[in-house]
Design brief:
3 domains; single chain
Length: 363
């Protein structure tokens, strides 16, 4: 430690009469010495550097403090007092320490977050392996931006309460939903809530972008499809009634012979069971939901699916013909034709995609 003793003598002189540049030079020499010998140092030796470097760091310009923070942040046994001092500095100085230094404990990080605010919190969210005490604090006190950042940290660990708060907030926060959907540590009992939040958000976005009439059709079709799927006894009845038709449709599909023309053929013949099974397979929807779309009371649902699949008006007209009332009413058919023409394929495909998602969530 003779080199340290010499530096300490120079330090006393520099602190008394030297300029800022002189102090920065002494600090650089002292840091060089510490970094080169840190691996073999004991606690007593490190404590000497802690006191000396800490004293110098309070008397140098920000540029020199930034350099000091960058150099010491990756040292496994850096002086703890200095690291806490730098972590409480301006964010330009603190950032590398907050992100990298292993010398900061969860308790240190909580205290720094409480004392300094959002910029320091955001830097902390970049640390690997954040513990539950700090993630709990960041979620409760950090605000939306910090919450997003900590949720996006795949190595962060969350308490049951902290994850519950995240899922609760995700109900009204689509971006947070997306971040949580990429995590593998959401408990099973919260995953269902997260899926429900995603479903409701998708529905809100979809209905907000549609014309009022179409939005109503989507809401009604989705709710009726959900009712059909959630009623287990009804599902079994439906599968029994459609069993023979579904077997034939799957055989056609396996042979590559199931297409729009085949569905139109079934519909024109009044064979609603095979037509519904064909649509369910081609549109990737469940049977109960498909039956509600084709035969239920919502007139526009069949238009949405036909347009979304890229089918012609003629095919869609044949499907409308399966409906007991609208299929035989010329005014109703004409209104449907106009609505079909006014419905853009992009909008219909978005609706169809949402119906698939909703059907899948329920199943």
């Amino acid at each position: 430690m003779s080199s340290v003793s010499a530096l300490l003598r120079d330090l006393e002189t520099t602190m008394a009469r030297g300029s800022g540049d002189d102090r920065a030079q002494i600090l650089s020499r002292l840091t060089d010495l510490f970094v080169s010998t840190a691996r073999g140092m004991g606690d007593d030796q490190i404590s000497v550097f802690d006191v000396v470097i800490g004293r110098l760091a309070r008397a140098i310009e920000m540029r020199a403090r930034i350099e000091l923070a960058e150099r010491l942040s990756v040292v496994p046994n850096a002086p703890g007092g200095v690291m806490r001092q730098l972590a409480l500095d301006e964010i330009a100085v603190a950032r590398p320490v907050l992100i990298h230094s292993p010398m900061l404990t969860d308790q240190d990080l909580v205290a720094i977050s409480a004392a300094k605010g959002r910029d320091h919190m955001l830097a902390i969210t970049e640390r690997p392996d954040l513990g539950e005490p700090i993630t709990d604090f960041l979620i409760l006190r950090g605000g939306r931006v910090v919450t997003h950042a900590v949720a996006a940290n795949q190595t962060a660990r969350f308490s049951r309460h902290g994850m519950g708060v995240l899922v609760m907030r995700a109900v009204q926060d689509d971006a947070l939903q997306t971040m949580l959907s990429t995590r593998s540590d959401v408990p099973p009992e919260l995953t269902e809530q997260l899926m429900l939040a995603a479903k409701n958000s998708a529905r809100r976005r979809l209905t907000a972008s549609l014309e009022p009439g179409l939005a109503g059709a989507v809401e009604s079709a989705v709710e009726r499809g959900a009712e059909a799927v959630s009623a287990q006894g009804h599902i079994h009845d439906e599968l029994g009634r459609f069993s023979a038709a579904l077997t034939e449709i799957k055989r056609l599909d396996d042979a590559g012979r199931l297409d729009e023309a085949k569905v139109a053929e079934f519909a024109a013949a009044g064979d609603s069971e095979r037509a519904i099974c064909g649509i369910a397979v081609l549109a990737r929807l469940g049977l109960p939901a498909t039956e509600q779309i084709i035969l239920g009371p919502d007139r526009d649902a069949v238009l949405l699916v036909g347009r979304g699949l890229g089918w012609s008006w003629e095919t869609t007209r044949a499907l409308i013909g399966l409906r007991k009332t609208d299929g035989t009413s010329l005014p109703a058919v004409e209104r449907a034709r106009q609505s079909f023409r006014n419905l853009t394929p992009v909008t219909a495909q978005r609706v169809l995609g949402f119906l698939r998602m909703r059907d899948g969530v329920q199943q």
